[in-house]
Design goal:
The protein contains five helices and no strands. The protein is mainly α.
């Protein structure tokens, strides 16, 4: 399957397709893992939430910036990366200080979702940046 069929044309409303993939993949994996590891469903959800929400926001913002002014995409992505790392660190600190749940299941869930969703984002951004700019 080609990336254009997978992600849609970014200059049309069809570009939202990537967000649907992120939502479907995240909640599908959450459901599967929560069924098999019912005792750790909260940890799995807490590990999924930040990469999921930040991933949706990043994809939306990068696409909008690309459609408005492509040269600003790189600057935004660098700043967004720094902000994401600070947010993730603060999230970890808050959860580890004020929570008593099983940390290993949270960490494994977080790393799994972080890796998969960022790989999907990278494929989408690679596809997006190869598209001719249409205003």
């Amino acid at each position: 399957m080609s990336l254009s069929k997978l992600f849609g044309n970014p200059s049309t409303p069809g570009y939202k397709r990537i967000q649907y993939y992120i939502i479907g993949l995240s909640f599908g994996l959450l459901l599967i893992f929560s069924v098999f590891y019912i005792r750790f469903a909260v940890e799995i959800f807490l590990g999924m939430a930040p990469p999921f929400l930040i991933g949706l926001w990043t994809v939306d913002r990068v696409t909008k910036i690309y459609l408005d002014d492509p040269p600003k995409v790189t600057k935004f992505m660098v700043i967004a990366f720094g902000v994401k790392m600070v947010v993730y660190a603060a999230y970890f600190i808050l959860l580890f200080v004020f929570s008593t749940f099983n940390r290993w299941h949270f960490i494994i869930s977080f790393l799994g979702f972080f890796s998969v969703l960022h790989a999907l984002e990278a494929m989408y951004f690679s596809y997006l940046l190869k598209q001719p700019h249409i205003r």
